[in-house]
Amino acid sequence: MLVTLSASATPDAGLVDATDLGYLLHKHPDRAQTFDLAVGRAHVLYPEATAQRCTVALLLEVDPVGIVRNKRFGGSDAFSLAQYVNDRPYAASSMVAVAVGQVFRSAMAGRCEARPELTGVRLDLEIHVPSLPCRGGADLARRLFEPLGWTVAATPVPLDPAVSGWGDSRYVDLRLTGSLRLADALNQLYVMLPVLDDAKHYWVSTDEVDKLVRAGAGWLAEHPERDEIMRRYLAHQRRYVADATERLVTLDGEVGADVGQVEPDEQVLAPPPLARQRADAVLAVLAEVGAGSVVDLGCGEGMLLRRLADDRRYTRLLGTDVSARELDRAATRLRLHEASDAERERVRLLQSSLTYTDDRLTGFDAAVLMEVIEHVDPSRLDAFERAVLGHARPRVVVVTTPNVEYNVHYPTLGGGDGATMRHPDHRFEWTRAQLRHWAQAAGRRFGYTVEHRGIGPQDAVTGPPTQMVVLTRVDRATTDGTEGSAA
User: Fold this and answer.
1) How high is the pLDDT of residue 423?
2) Nearest-angstrom CA–CA distance, 352 and 362
3) For all residues of the chain together, what is the average pLDDT?
4) Residue 403: what are its φ and ψ, rounded to 5°?
5) What's the whole-number mean pLDDT along residues 297-311?
6) Which of 204, 201, 186, 282 is nearest to 243 (CA)?
7) pTM value surpassing 0.70
8) H or E stretch including 54?
9) How far apart are CA 416 and CA 412, in angstroms?
10) How many Cβ atoms are within 10 Å of 260's Cβ, its own excluded?
11) Please, are residues 344 and 335 in contact by the beta-carbon 8 Å criterion?
12) Which residues contact residue 234 at a Cβ distance below 8 angstroms, ignoring those fewer than 6 apart?
């Protein structure tokens, strides 16, 4: 699989010598380099390097048999003939996107210590992908790239040049030309390759949402084909698409509000995605209360646990979830299979329900329910309160949940598709008043004081996108679920 990227010298724009492309890519034009990746072996070389024009080529050698033997890529049907006979070694699909993301990681992040002034320069670029699977044809390639400022030449590749009657294949010869920052061009290519193919050759998890939000920052939220891009990139998994939509729209709204208020030479820094702001807010509370042991109730794939595990102040960590499949993914994210015995004792996972009492959940300084309570059936909230506040009784309970009042800021919610909540598995979404009423009532019953906070950009009318309550146990309260003395 081959992809080439060329830059032409533009002295007026700031690129006097085209070979300075090597600084931005962190790859010297005089050297050919090879990188061993999980998807194969990537070669980077410069077939052309003059002061006027510089071209870098990324050549990826894929081993189909090795991929099948790799559990991450092979899938469950490893004996299917299609696992061994396919287009992966010849067409630029998600395998090339993986190679771009790893080989040009620093360039995609816009880092260049040797020539930092080049990172903001719009280069005259040309990207050529000779064999690109494109489910949707040349028209789809144009719809995806033209709104980003590219001039698109997508030529369908015939099934057999010698037999015209067979028509065209699903592959195109793609050539993009435009004036863009190198980081933007690489991030767009990274996202669009698997989107055009409408397939990924590895398991899609919440990590892919993080990658999409990171690579799509600054351009994806306003793309006219945004929804189609997200669906294809996230393998048509609705819960991941909903999460990505929420994070992108919130992020884009913040950036858009600032861009018109700064001078052209000022740097506009985008806020972190809402999901990270939530985690940051939870971690800040845990630090404030001096928690040393934490149970993450409904930990899912372990995103928060991963950050907790990296902080040695937490000497005892437990993640619970009702789904064994999610716990398997959390174990992979936490690398528990590689961890020492001491680390596996410090960080543990177990299957448990939020609505049943479980002695294994007692004795922790703090419990976290981050975007979890809205997945509980309203009829089971009483059982949830008894299990967490009445039986487990951590010293502090941190709960975050969507603020339904803020949903009016999301164009995809409440629209013609009938969607009204941020996730298809949400059983409810509370207003700020509803959360306050629930938390105060539960706190009175089980002996907890209640503090309310907001997370994310604060709107004067609708409030923040995420709301948080911090329940702190009053030690003199009763522990049997009767009325306590909550100050």
Assistant:
1) 77
2) 13
3) 83
4) -95, 105
5) 91
6) 204
7) no
8) strand 53-61
9) 9
10) 6
11) no
12) 204, 208, 209, 212, 240, 241, 244
Residue with tokens 């699989």: 1
3-state secondary structure of 62: coil
Give me 157's structure tokens.
């590749």
- Tokens 């996107």: give the residue: 97
Please enumerate, as own/partner, the contacts of 58-63 that have beta carbons within 8 Å and a separation of 24 or more: 58/2, 58/3, 58/4, 58/5, 58/96, 58/99, 58/100, 58/103, 59/1, 59/2, 60/1, 60/2, 60/95, 60/96, 60/99, 61/89, 62/1, 62/88, 62/89, 62/95
Residue type (1 letter), 281: A
pLDDT tens track for 271-285: 567 888 899 999 999
Q: Which of 113, 64, 56 is nearest to 91 (CA)?
A: 64
**How many residues are listed for the chain in this entry?**
487
Instruction: Decide: 404 and 431 in contact? Cβ < 8 Å.
Output: yes
| Residue appearing with tokens 């260049």 | 112
Question: What confidence tens digit (pLDDT) does each residue in 207-266 have?
Answer: 788 888 888 888 888 888 998 999 999 888 887 887 777 766 554 443 333 323 333 333
What are the DSSP E strand ranges found in 405-444? none
Q: Under DSSP, is residue 209 helix (H, G, I), strand (E, B) or coil?
A: helix
Q: Please state, in angstroms and rounded to a whole number, the distance separating the CA atoms of residues 136 and 153.
A: 15
Can you tell me which residue has the tokens 């969607």?
419
